Amino acid sequence: MEYDYLTLTFLFSFLVTYYAITITISGGRRNSRLPPGPYRLPIIGNLLHLGNKPHHSLAKLSKRYGPLMSLKLGTRTTIVVSSPDIAKEFFQTHDHSFSSRSVPNATRIVDHNRYSIVFLPVGDQWRRLRRLSKEYIFSMQRLDASEPLRQKKVKELIDHVNRCCTSEKAVKIGGLAFTTSLNVLSNLMFSRDCAQYDSLSSQEFKDNVWALLEIAGKPNIADFFPVLKSFDPQGLVHRGNVYGKKLMTIFDRIIDQRLQARLTSMTNNDEARLTSMTNNDVLDLLLNQMDESSFNRNDIRHLFYALFIAGTDTTSSTLEWAMTELIHNPNKLETARAEIIKLMKHKKSTLQEFDLTQLPYLQAVIKETFRLHPPVPLLVPHQAIRDVEIQGFMVPKNAQILCNVWAMGRDPKVWSQPETFRPERFLEGNIDYKGQDFELIPFGAGRRMCPGLNMAHRMLHITLGSLIQKFDWKLEENIKAKDMDMTEKFGLTLQKTVPLKAIPLKL
Ligand code: HEM
């Protein structure tokens, strides 16, 4: 954390005073009907319990205090859910009561908190954004229509990896997957690439998105003491604004160019020209909406902003973990590859999305990756809209809800040999991650569930399938598969501590 002694002293005095006032007002009461949890220190509550891997620490605590646990993180009452049964109570039985968001301070970057599909409370504007993004991006019809785009972008990735084969140089799988996800999204949104595979080209867009992801993933003291929000003690919002504004300027430029093109076409009154100047991409569809409803340019910019932040790193880090597990477990890699090669033997085309239903082992690999390495291990924090009683305990209004899907994925009461990567377990049953089977909810469940699930599902299978169908993968400098670093680092998403680097070999 980056603040100096003066700031710390100021902060400390401020917090002591604030605490004294709070104690006086509340008379020092502790709500005895809260779920059980560890002893809280004055002022900081259970902050020291979190450590630098909160999903690990919370998993450990829940073994002691149970799958419904309460903590005080600074001044925030936090409820931690760590079992499928309790998760079902929260996100199915009482879904509406828990459908609000606790809003992290980093979302104040470019005032995103006021317009974000991810952080708005459930209300008219949130519903409008969910409806528009479903209609224009995520519906099955739209996803089918955008398949050629994903196909094209995966082919570009494969062509790039092919070129790397010649030089026998290791590639960073996560970085390549990030570039691919970014370009799929940017072409879907406004029909242009925003990142390149080679390091010489300008990466302005990618660098800004990456910087914002890093800032949003840093622990922020103002999240635990909301009274500090406007002081931005670590300067994270200030720094984030630099990148956020650059990103917004890029969106503005793209919107201006498109508006100009549409205007020119209309003044020339030339239908054919209009079709060629516009792209019928998400930007065009949203601009059409702008005339008809209260949906304005700023909403478009913030929708893009939210989708790039929510949709790139989640997808690329899952792909990196899937490749890591397969290289770490060469016999599983062989099984997955054999399944694809057998299916594709008599087909002329490359792997297509409709092939995926015939690749149960590949699907099991992705499920097993989500079980062990959910990219958003505590989901995006929810917030209680009202007091709700769960299993005899009180979850108070405004409490923050963390659902530890990482712990649920490794619970021996739910999974046999939970620490072992064994995709076969999913061939035996019908468990899926679509929000109905609460033992596996990497995309969440209920009304705040990830709207990008089906897009991510298609992207992940087609990209992973193509990478293992076309190439064999060797580790650098004779590192042995069994010695690979498998540790994770907590941030906005769960990244590998050591990024996966592997040498592709043509098959
Ligand atoms: C492996 C890929 C992905 C994973 C694991 C993932 C996971 C999640 C999770 C856990 C949530 C919060 C759910 C909850 O609160 O209960 C979420 C929300 C969200 N995701 Fe994803 N996501 C992925 C990909 C995507 C993609 C590709 C997009 C869009 C292009 C996207 C857009 C969103 C949005 C807009 C929300 C906020 C929904 C709301 O609050 O109403 N995600 N995602």
Describe it for me?
By secondary structure, this protein is an alpha+beta fold. The chain has a single domain (124-506), classed as Cytochrome p450, CATH 1.10.630. Helix content is 51%, strand content 8%. The chain has 19 helices and twelve strands. It has helices at residues 5-26, 47-50, 54-65, 84-93, 124-138, 140-145, 147-167, 173-190, 204-216, 221-224, 236-267, 271-277, 282-292, 297-311, 313-328, 330-344, 360-372, 405-409, 453-470; strands at residues 68-73, 76-81, 100-101, 171-172, 382-383, 388-390, 393-395, 400-403, 471-475, 488-489, 495-496, 501-506. The strands form four sheets. The protein has a five-stranded mixed sheet with strand order 1-2-8-5-3, covered by helices on one side. A hairpin with a 5-residue loop joins strand 10 and strand 11. Helix 7 runs antiparallel to helix 8, helix 8 runs antiparallel to helix 14 and helix 8 runs antiparallel to helix 15 (313-328). It is globular, with a radius of gyration of 24 Å. The structure holds protoporphyrin IX containing FE. Residues 117-118, 130, 185, 306-307, 310-311, 314-315, 318, 375-376, 379-380, 382, 442-444, 448-452, 455-456 line the site of protoporphyrin IX containing FE.
List keywords for this structure.
Cytochrome p450; 507 residues; 19 helices; alpha+beta; binds protoporphyrin IX containing FE; globular; 5-stranded mixed β-sheet; disordered N terminus; 3-stranded antiparallel β-sheet; 51% helix
Mean pLDDT equals 91
Biggest sheet details: 5 strands, mixed
CATH level 1 name = Mainly Alpha
N- to C-terminal distance: 47 Å
Helix coverage percent of residues? 40-55%
